[in-house]
Amino acid sequence: MKYDVEHRRIWFKGDIVDVNDAKINVLAPTSQFGLNVFEGIPCYWNEEDKQLYAFRLEDHYDRLLRSVKLLQLDCRYSKDDFKKGFIDVIKANEYDENLSVRQTLFVDGFGSWGSEGPVEMFIAPIPRGRTSAEYNKKGLKCCVTSWRRISDDNLSPRIKCGANYINSRVGQREALRNGYDTCIFLNKNGNVAEGPGSCFFMVKNGELITPKLSNSVLESITRDTIIKIARNIGITVIERTIERTELYTCDEAFLCGSAMELTPVLSIDGYTIGNGSEGDMVKELHREYLSVVRGMNKDFTDWITPIY
Ligand SMILES: Cc1ncc(COP(=O)(O)O)c(C=O)c1O
Known about the structure:
Elements: E1 9-12, E2 15-18, H1 29-33, E3 36-46, E4 51-55, H2 57-70, H3 79-93, E5 99-107, E6 119-127, H4 132-135, E7 140-148, H5 165-177, E8 182-186, E9 199-204, E10 207-210, H6 221-232, E11 237-239, H7 244-249, E12 252-257, E13 261-268, E14 271-272, H8 280-293, E15 304-306
Parallel strand pairs: 7-8, 7-13, 10-11
Antiparallel strand pairs: 1-2, 1-6, 3-4, 3-5, 4-15, 5-6, 9-10, 9-12, 12-13, 13-14
Bound molecules: pyridoxal-5'-phosphate (PLP).
C-alpha cells in the first residue's frame, strides 16, 4: 500500500511502523549526545526497467560497519539484517521513485556517551520528490568557512556519526548568515577538506583534482564513484592536497554526495569560478553519474541492487 509521506512506513527496532509511532527515549545517548552512526543510501527508479535500484549498498554497509568499529558500538545487526530491513521497508511503502534512505544505528537505553549499547536501528526511506536536474538548477555560491574541519586527532571525519554534523552545522550557519549557499572547510593545516555534507572536486587544465582521503574528509562513496567514472572515460584524476588560493583560480568546481549528486560551484568567496555557470566537465560527469546509478552503464552494474 502507498502512504502519504507524513505516514510513510519506517523500519524501527525490527518492526515496520508508521513514522509517527517510532519513538526514542529522550534520555537515550543518541538523543543526548548524537551517539549514532548512519548512512544515506540513494535509490534510483529506472522507468524502462520498471525497477528501483539501490546504489552501492555493500559499500554503504561496509562504511557503516567501519563507523561501528571505530566508535566501539556493540551492534547485534549483521549486513544481512541491514539489507533485509532496507528492502522490506521500501517494499512496504511500494516506492517507485527516487529515494534517499536513512539507515541509522543508534545507542538506545539509559546509558551515557561512553555506552556501547544497546544499539538499535531504524531505516527511513525519504522520497527525493524531484529530479536531480531541478535539484541542481542553480549551482552554489560558496565561502570558505572560518571554522576548521574536524580531524583524525580529535573527532575523525572518517566516522559517519551524528555528532560530527555539529562541525558541519557551524560552517553552514556561517555561510547562510553571510549570504552564501554553503561552505567549504579547510582542515587543521589550512588546506581544502570538504563541504559540510559533501566532497569537493575542481577542474584545472582538463584534470580533475580532489583532496586526499587523509586531508580530513569522509570516505565518500560519491567521491569514489566520480573518480572511477571519470577514469573510465579517460579523464585524469589527481588526489592531492589543495591550497586555498587554488580554489579561486580553478576552471570548474563542484560539491558531491549521495544527496546532492554533483552540484556546480559557481563562486567561492566572491571569486567567480570559470565563467560563473556549470562547466562542461561537471555536466558530463553528472550525466555519466545518472546513467550509472540507474543501472544503464554496463561497466558499473555491480554497483546496483534491484529492490523489486
Ligand atoms: C561531510 C560529508 N562529506 C561527504 C559526503 C558525501 O558522502 P557520500 O558520497 O558517501 O554520500 C557526506 C554525505 O553525507 C558528508 O556528510
